[in-house]
Structure prediction request, 291 residues.
Amino acid sequence: MKGFMKFYQWGMYFKLHMGIYFVALLCVYCVVELCKGNFEVSIWTMLEMLLVMMVTALIESYIVHSNREYSKEELIKRSVIWVIFMNVAFIASSYLFKWFEGLLLWHYLLLLFVLEMGLLAMWFGVVFVQRLETKSLNDGLKKYQK
Amino acid sequence: MKITIEYCAVEENEILIRCPLIDDEILHVMALLKSHNQRLCVLDEKKEMIFLSPSEVFYVETLEDKTFLYVEKIVYQVSLTLTELTSKYEEVGFCRIGKSVTVNMHQIEKLRAMQGGRIEITLKNKEKLIVSRHYAALFKEQLGI
Prediction:
């Protein structure tokens, strides 16, 4: 039962991240397509995005998981690996599936900036906010137990 | 709070609390004293009756309509329900953390925030419990957060 619960929790975690990445990617794609004058999104493109984000979130859950405890050094190491992996995953899959084809150089630079900001926001939510919350909880506990 | 111990020849130990008004601190001291005197009647594995102090309890769990008390490494069965135990010993640190679990706040070693608003509890015996999202607000309130 404990094993199943662990598996279920992990499933919930990675599906949540898959959903976040998929929606973010689809939103950016829609904005780009709208700017190009297209008002349609292919179901195949969405399916490609969903599958790529599923694999990305799956691998991500092994690199850094907010429900696991890491030492400071371990966290830095895993964060660096995570940033590199996420960049490679997003850029390589966009190139491979031609999601953002035919754009100018500054458009790509803007997309890269959006990606980095998105990753920063994600890292902040997954790692930093939870660390702050944990500190506040333990401070409260110490006060209570006094 | 100033603590003074007066050594004198008395027939029975006596605790006298001097305060201008009964505040949270005094209430907490009174609850602790009460809990020392209170004894929980529990059954061990051999169905033998044992008296426990509520402060010794790590957590309480309900399984198949039976209530179990976890004391470091030993499990005891108790006739009271989880709700009764939680309300009876709330003052000494019992706090509901799930549909079927109540924890003794004084037996918690550390806490960790988890995704989805849940909280992971590590007890002093290294056992881990999870505060469900539903009870997290109540738990934080107890901590004064």
Remarks:
- The CA atoms of residues 33 and 40 of chain A lie 8 Å apart.
- Chain A has four helices and no strands.
- The interface with chain B takes residues 12-13, 16, 66-67, 69, 126, 130, 133-134, 136-138, 140-141, 143-145 of chain A (CB under 8 Å).
- Chain A has a mean pLDDT of 90.
